[in-house]
Amino acid sequence: MAHHQGGKAYGQLKAEQEQQLDRTNDEFRAGGKYDDVEDLNEKLEAYKKQFMEFDENNSGDIDIMELKRMMEKLGQAKTHLELKKMIAEVDTNNSGTIHYHEFLNMMLGKRSTILKLILMFEAMKEEKEKPKGLPPKRDLSSLP
Q1: N or C: which end of the chain has fewer CB within 10 A?
Q2: Residues 93-123: pLDDT tens digits?
Q3: How far apart, in whole angstroms, are the C-alpha atoms of residue 90 and residue 111?
């Protein structure tokens, strides 16, 4: 699907995809494998949003072009070969794409993949950029 459909149909697609990802999140919660992960619920919510940003056509997986565009958006442009390697590190069923459960296993697991390091780096950058407290009051004397 090359053309972007706006409006209701697209909104519905997004909602359906979110429900699917929510089900995967529930499986991960119930699975017990990640019980020791701190703030598991918050993390699952955050990773879901992240994944939906990547997955532009709501197919439920991230293909190489979607990964390429996301890396460019993050200012982390990669070569085709690097992108293939990034996917291969995460892609446990050799589909050539990153499925949501593979994405979650990557983010929650102990292994550090390239993609995970980039996303964690981005998250830390965003934390730093959030202004703390009230913006300083500007008086006339501080104007250029």
Answers
A1: C
A2: 999 999 999 999 999 999 899 999 999 888 8
A3: 10
